[in-house]
Structure to design on (467 residues):
């Protein structure tokens, strides 16, 4: 459907009854012009609440379970009172209770097991999006717009990597069109849950934290949409975090590659995997602010219409750890050690944010998120148990007192002296550079620095690159 617009609303954009009304205003406005499919996140903080409740279940904490269930039910019942017509309120509130009961069933099973199976966690936390889709669709219906809540498990087919699944696009294209096209052709607006899907045999999965963006791009690609609009609580993609750099500017336009690199390196506007499904079909994306919908936002495109020179933006990430490994002597193959370590990280689905290595001693280091550090360390210790036991490796060193700075821009390729200027700007602030990583594409220069110097370094680089 060539005119189709897919609109995605993040947690803050549907974080309350008031924000859901604004989201519905935006949906209704566009639906009067062309077919629309909306993808919604859970209300703000609900996913965290659901996860914490599952942890309470694993620990046998009945008080914590009851508190989580009560908060979940109360918040959505109160929202329903403000969103649904009196004639439909009792029915909708019962549907809310039914979804909460579904969540209660899952956490009760976890409590009995004393364990949180990844598959069960995925099914449990998708309840947040299902509740949002219910409330948004019912509010639209109360305003006379034909809308239907759709569980993405009925439309998005994924692999079986629970908690961080990837889409199977051919199967998704077939299933999404079978489920959603009849609704669109009947003049209805599907309100689809973000973040979740199901395996080919129907087991519930999720796409990882922040995966609602990813869900929206998967559906946009599968349905052949004309555009994807991602509604957040910021005005667009900026040259830096405005909390660190007060004079940061909004980028009018940015490429897929630049946006993906910024997201991967810490910019919180998009999920890092969002843009991948759109590349083949060259579907443009807008990042917009649902709190200021009149502002134009940032357009994300395959290539810029104007020339692209130098750096475009700088981003940073503080919640990271640097892991270092070094063979005990030059007779030990560093390549072998690196290969085993990277394979171990891949098997436990840990993302490497930056990787750097030396030549003679073949030592290397890599950066991971703090929340993934424990499983990363455990996986490497298991994979290199023999080498560590016999002293072939000098041990695993972990430094949490670091931060990542990344400078991004397709126009940096071949830009004479740019890297030197970046490092000089950092050094002028008396910030020590610990590690450097840059791919052959020269799209991103990643720099690891001491955590207490990260913010100064970001400001210095932003000024140096005239962003």
């Amino acid at each position: 459907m060539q005119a189709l617009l897919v609109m995605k609303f993040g947690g803050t954009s549907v974080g309350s009854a008031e924000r859901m009304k604004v989201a519905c205003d935006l949906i209704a406005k566009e639906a009067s012009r062309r077919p629309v499919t909306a993808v919604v996140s859970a209300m703000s903080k609900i996913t965290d609440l659901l996860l914490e409740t599952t942890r309470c279940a694993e620990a046998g904490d009945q008080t914590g379970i009851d508190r989580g269930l009560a908060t979940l039910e109360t918040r959505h019942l109160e929202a329903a009172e403000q969103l649904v017509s009196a004639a439909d309120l009792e029915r909708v509130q019962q549907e809310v209770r039914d979804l909460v009961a579904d969540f209660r069933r899952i956490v009760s099973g976890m409590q009995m097991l004393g364990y949180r199976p990844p598959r069960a966690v995925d099914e449990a936390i998708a309840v947040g999006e299902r509740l949002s889709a219910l409330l948004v669709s019912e509010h639209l219906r109360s305003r006379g717009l034909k809308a239907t809540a759709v569980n993405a498990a009925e439309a998005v087919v994924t692999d079986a990597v629970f908690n961080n699944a990837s889409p199977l696009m051919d199967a998704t294209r077939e299933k999404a069109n079978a489920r959603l096209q009849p609704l669109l052709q009947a003049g209805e607006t599907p309100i689809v849950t973000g973040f979740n899907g199901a395996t080919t045999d129907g087991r519930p999965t999720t796409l990882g934290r922040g995966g609602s963006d990813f869900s929206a791009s998967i559906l946009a690609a599968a349905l052949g949409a004309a555009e994807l609009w991602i509604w957040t609580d910021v005005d667009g993609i900026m040259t830096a975090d405005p909390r660190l750099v007060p004079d940061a500017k909004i980028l009018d336009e940015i490429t897929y590659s630049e946006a993906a690199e910024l997201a991967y390196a810490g910019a919180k506007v998009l999920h890092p995997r969002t843009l991948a499904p759109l590349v083949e079909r060259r579907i443009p994306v807008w990042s917009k602010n649902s709190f200021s919908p009149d502002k134009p936002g940032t357009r994300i495109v395959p290539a810029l219409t104007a020339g692209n020179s130098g750096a475009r933006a700088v981003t940073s990430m503080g919640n990271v750890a640097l892991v270092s490994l070094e063979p005990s002597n030059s007779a030990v193959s560093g390549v072998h050690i690196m290969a085993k370590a990277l394979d171990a990280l891949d098997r436990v689905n840990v993302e490497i944010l930056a990787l750097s290595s030396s030549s003679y001693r073949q030592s290397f280091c890599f950066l991971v998120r703090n929340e993934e550090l424990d499983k990363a360390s455990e996986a490497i210790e298991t994979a290199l148990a023999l080498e560590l036991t016999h002293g072939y490796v000098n041990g695993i060193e972990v430094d949490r007192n670091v931060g990542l700075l990344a400078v991004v821009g397709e126009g940096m390729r071949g830009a004479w002296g740019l890297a030197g200027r970046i490092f000089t700007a950092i050094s002028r602030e008396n910030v020590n550079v610990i590690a450097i990583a840059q791919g052959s594409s020269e799209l991103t220069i990643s720099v690891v620095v001491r955590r207490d110097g990260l913010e100064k370094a970001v400001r210095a680089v932003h000024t140096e690159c005239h962003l």
User: Anything to note?
Assistant: The chain has 14 helices and 16 strands. The chain has a mean pLDDT of 91. The longest helix spans residues 86-113.
